[in-house]
Design a protein that fits this description.
Elements lengths: L1 H7 L8 H11 L20
């Protein structure tokens, strides 16, 4: 099942927890200080 889902993703793989962590770390960092009213989908390119 997981392999089938991964093959359907544009990137060809399922996100690992480390990828999610990178997004979370961005949102809590000063680099995201001027970002407002946005959402960032971490979904392996599933639309």
């Amino acid at each position: 099942m997981i392999q089938r889902l991964a093959s359907m993703a544009k990137l060809g793989h399922i996100d690992e927890p480390e990828y999610i962590l990178r997004v979370v770390l961005f949102w809590v960092s000063d680099a995201a200080g001027w970002v407002a009213g946005q959402s960032l989908g971490v979904n392996g390119e599933f639309a």
